[in-house]
């Protein structure tokens, strides 16, 4: 039976103003450095975290991000969970397509974030908010 991941350290941060997006980037970078991620892996993970924090603020009306250092067997990694109580996403398949946007951007936010991490999970229902979980393994 495969081992389940174990949380080694955890903290939660609110996302309610644009300065919080910058703070989330800084936190993600610091935890990546602590885990000794390569510069490329740091950049990928921080970019995904920044996009998801901005989505939490702009589309979800704010929310929170939980950061966890996790371990699964010999692997250690960083897990971020973004949660909001916003309007939710009615069509997840469409929202994950490159080029789809509701905010006037390039439409690479969710799909791009998914490509930048090792694990990506999204749960959303109209009127119930959205939760996005990302993991990057060392």
UniProtKB/TrEMBL annotation:
Signal peptide boundaries: none
Cited SUPFAM superfamilies: ATPase domain of HSP90 chaperone/DNA topoisomerase II/histidine kinase
Native source species: Edaphobacter paludis
Any matching Pfam family: HATPase_c
UniProt-recorded name of the protein: Anti-sigma regulatory factor
Domain Histidine kinase/HSP90-like ATPase: 40-138
Domain of life of the native organism: Bacteria
Gene3D superfamilies: Histidine kinase-like ATPase, C-terminal domain (3.30.565.10)
InterPro entries: HATPase_C_sf, HATPase_dom
